[in-house]
Amino acid sequence: MSFWTNLFESISAKRPRPEGKPAVSLRERFSALRNLPEFLRLIWQTSPALTLGNVALRLLRAALPVAMLYVAQLLLDSVVHLSQLPAEQRPANLMPASGYAALEFGLAILSDLLGRGTALLDSLLGDLFANRTSVRLMEHAAELDLDQFEDSTFYDKLERARRQTLSRTVLMAQVLSQAQDVITMAFLAVGLAAFNPWLLLLLLVAVVPAFLGESHFNERSYSLVHGWTPERRELDYLRQTGASDETAKEVKIFGLSRFLIDRFRQLSDEFYQKNKDLVIRRAGWGSFFAAVGAAGYYAAYVYIIRQAVLGQVSIGQLTFLAGSFARMRGLLEGILSRFSSVADGALYLQDFFDFFALRPRIVRQELTGERPIPFPRPIRQGFQFENVGFQYKNGAKWALRNLNFMLKAGEKLALVGENGAGKTTLVKLLARLYDPTEGRILLDGYDLREYDPAELRQEIGVIFQDFVRFQLPAGQNIAVGRIDERQNQDRIEGAAARSLADSVIAKLPQGYEQMIGRRFAGGVDLSGGEWQKIALGRAYMRDAQLLILDEPTAALDARAEYEVFQRFKELTQGKTAVLISHRFSTVRMADRILVIENGQLQELGSHEELLAKGGRYAELFQLQAAGYR
Ligand SMILES: Nc1ncnc2c1ncn2[C@@H]1O[C@H](COP(=O)(O)OP(=O)(O)OP(=O)(O)O)[C@@H](O)[C@H]1O
């Protein structure tokens, strides 16, 4: 005990632990193995036929080594027997030996075929499993809440779960090979134990140190990689920012590439150094343990040869035993070292399952016991904010507080306020991307949380100021507003006409089929205002009862903006709408205007009322008007 403890302490003496990240204990590694049954279940679900085939081939392969060794023993003994016959009798007695030789040849061919068969099934099953897993990861990520995406520990989890997609297929092959080798071992052990059980013990002594060493270094490397997840994310970010179409413009103008490259180099060098120390120590100790293993093997070999010399075993048995011992040593070493990589794989699986264990919190809730509450069509009263307050998880202050007002059905409400006042946050609460931290929002008398979030979102169309520029054909870029209608060309063109995107698309060489954005071959990029018209088209694509436009016209020229809003009033007749804008020419078209300051409601009323009141709105309006005079 103390020898090994000292040994391992000396191995790890000079290695600083990755900052703040505790190493993974052997117990944790063992307990991570409990993830394997679930993992195997997932593999089985991927393809029962491929899994069964794989297992069957491996079972056959497991029995082959002992069969081959045994046939070799018979062959040798019969050759020795043959050599002891008078020369003239030999040709007539060739049969058993040549039969064994043919059998051995057959087994060798079979072994090769089975090896290739399992490799093939492994690769097919692995590919299928990796694809299914990626799909499941995407599906699950789609179910989660926005604030979960804004949490960096969540991202680290997602990152580790994603990164391991490939290694999971390796893990699968390892688990299966492990089972196969254990069975082969069992066959060989029976033969060896029948000869002398002490040889089995010698075998363990020869191999266990190598296993412990391997296990120790695997644990170190898992801790290192695990502890470095945030930095690796940063590395990816730097790599991407340094060379992507979205950032190239600013990186060039500001001359940022040196800054980004230096940071990348610094981080990657640091990781390289840490990893280098580890791999060097691992190689050194690995050689030492291999020597211990070899000494054990040769001790056994000498013993078996001695028995042969004493005439206690035949030459055939000598080859069988020496072969078995060598083979078992190889197998046992393989099993033990694979055990630690399987245990590591199982630790990574923990990240994977942890990610799937995350549950969205924004779901339908039963608050009044009346369920399910169908979404009102049409909305009769509107959205009532009752003392609504909201604080971002990672935000120090309240983004919104004490909000009390009614967004009436059919009303066009404009939100006005300085940068960071809380306008976008209010809109996110309406779409239930977040739930209020305090207070509640009622829709026609029921808490928003009582409606099905998916149904709610179907009835709300939001175009955010940072809308996504999808790298898709123009028509599809509008169709994302109602993706199930993407084949409905009339609807797409109707939406484009309302948002003025039709004139943009008319100028594109391939019209609605034109790929936009620069990411893919043949893509054409648009100006900021042209993109905005496309994004606005998404709002019209959707037949929603509540339309929210968060600074939808910021990039539009004056004429386009005027036209957009003229149409907007007509086209959203009877619908409820919320507009966020910093342009008062737009804002004044709304029925009522809500002024937010520091997350609090400051004023609420029509343009005329607020001007007459001479408060904050009047002040901001005059300020902007003065700029035009
Ligand atoms: N995801 C987030 N996590 C933490 N804080 C946030 C987050 N999003 C916004 N905030 C903070 O909440 C406050 C309100 O932000 P919000 O985006 O609602 O402002 P806004 O009125 O829409 O501003 P702008 O006119 O600049 O678009 C700001 O102080 C902002 O820093």
Automatic annotation (TrEMBL):
<protein>
    <submittedName>
        <fullName>ABC transporter ATP-binding protein</fullName>
    </submittedName>
</protein>
<keyword id="KW-0067">ATP-binding</keyword>
<dbReference type="InterPro" id="IPR017871">
    <property type="entry name" value="ABC_transporter-like_CS"/>
</dbReference>
<dbReference type="GO" id="GO:0015421">
    <property type="term" value="F:ABC-type oligopeptide transporter activity"/>
</dbReference>
<keyword id="KW-0812">Transmembrane</keyword>
<dbReference type="Pfam" id="PF00005">
    <property type="entry name" value="ABC_tran"/>
</dbReference>
<dbReference type="InterPro" id="IPR011527">
    <property type="entry name" value="ABC1_TM_dom"/>
</dbReference>
<dbReference type="GO" id="GO:0005524">
    <property type="term" value="F:ATP binding"/>
</dbReference>
<dbReference type="InterPro" id="IPR027417">
    <property type="entry name" value="P-loop_NTPase"/>
</dbReference>
<keyword id="KW-0472">Membrane</keyword>
<dbReference type="InterPro" id="IPR036640">
    <property type="entry name" value="ABC1_TM_sf"/>
</dbReference>
<keyword id="KW-1003">Cell membrane</keyword>
<keyword id="KW-0547">Nucleotide-binding</keyword>
<dbReference type="GO" id="GO:0016887">
    <property type="term" value="F:ATP hydrolysis activity"/>
</dbReference>
<dbReference type="InterPro" id="IPR039421">
    <property type="entry name" value="Type_1_exporter"/>
</dbReference>
<dbReference type="InterPro" id="IPR003439">
    <property type="entry name" value="ABC_transporter-like_ATP-bd"/>
</dbReference>
<dbReference type="GO" id="GO:0005886">
    <property type="term" value="C:plasma membrane"/>
</dbReference>
<dbReference type="InterPro" id="IPR003593">
    <property type="entry name" value="AAA+_ATPase"/>
</dbReference>
<keyword id="KW-0813">Transport</keyword>
<keyword id="KW-1133">Transmembrane helix</keyword>
